[in-house]
Write a structure and sequence with these properties.
Elements: H1 5-26, E1 28-29, H2 38-41, E2 47-50, H3 58-61, E3 68-72, H4 76-87, E4 91-94, H5 101-106, H6 109-121, E5 125-129, H7 142-150, E6 154-161, E7 164-166, E8 174-176, E9 181-186, H8 198-225
Parallel strand pairs: 1-9, 2-5, 2-6, 3-4, 3-5
Antiparallel strand pairs: 6-9, 7-8
Length: about 230
């Protein structure tokens, strides 16, 4: 039997969702500090960021959150992730950031930005990666522009596990495995002034890069201490 692209993505999405649910069930997460997660702090919708390649435990990080949309690319793997997102009860917004004008158009970056802006204004929180392919661990300005346009806060998070395979690819992706020790850390909220200019947004992007690296390093150190 032959599958079309949509059917293949749906099948892969079901399999990946089942796998991620199994990983989440079998991972012993370090107890979260009460009140640190964005939806525990306020009912205000937020923008959550993590690094490319470190998203596999995002659903665990969002446990308890409601009204969330997750940005996924237009590629086949993005279609698979969109299927996972929807099976988890969240909304998928299709598109991705880019650096060149041509890719901005082909990756649906601008329509996705407007859709995300509207979602935030309607009370839906967002999850997206801070870095733009293929420039790993360097925060772009897309989320910062969203925060400036809507007044919504940015939160950074790290969701890691001791049971993983770290790949040597462009985004240094980590493949989460079952039966590990897990840790989810959230940052303090970061607000962007409506009057922020390009220089200020560039400094915020540098700060986001530094904070995300520190969050992931801290999460891994906490796991090492639990051995």
């Amino acid at each position: 039997m032959r599958f079309g692209t949509g059917q293949s993505a749906a099948f892969a999405g079901r399999a990946l969702h089942a796998y991620l649910a199994f990983v989440q069930r079998t991972t012993r997460f370090k107890p979260a500090i009460p009140g640190v997660r964005p939806w525990e702090r306020s009912r205000e919708p937020f923008i959550a960021l993590t690094w490319h390649g470190q998203q596999m435990l995002s659903l665990a990080a969002l446990d308890g959150a409601a009204e969330v949309a997750i940005l996924t690319s237009l590629h086949f793997d993005g279609t698979v992730v969109a299927s996972v997102v929807e099976r988890a009860g969240f909304r998928a917004i299709r598109g991705s950031g880019a650096r060149s004008p041509l890719k901005i158009k082909t990756k649906r970056a601008i329509p996705a930005f407007f859709e995300m802006r509207e979602a935030l204004r309607e009370g839906t929180s967002l999850v997206l990666t801070a870095d733009v392919p293929k420039l790993a661990r360097v925060a772009g300005k897309g989320a910062i522009q969203l925060a400036r346009a809507t007044g919504r806060p940015i939160y950074l998070f790290a969701a890691v596990t001791s049971a993983r395979v770290d790949l040597d690819n462009w985004d240094r992706a980590s493949i989460a495995l079952p039966f590990g020790r897990g840790c989810v850390l959230w940052s303090e909220p970061l607000y962007v002034r409506r009057a922020a200019d390009e220089r200020e947004m560039g400094l915020i992007a540098l700060d986001i890069s530094t904070q995300l690296d520190e969050l992931h390093a801290t999460a891994h150190r906490l796991l090492e201490r639990r051995r």
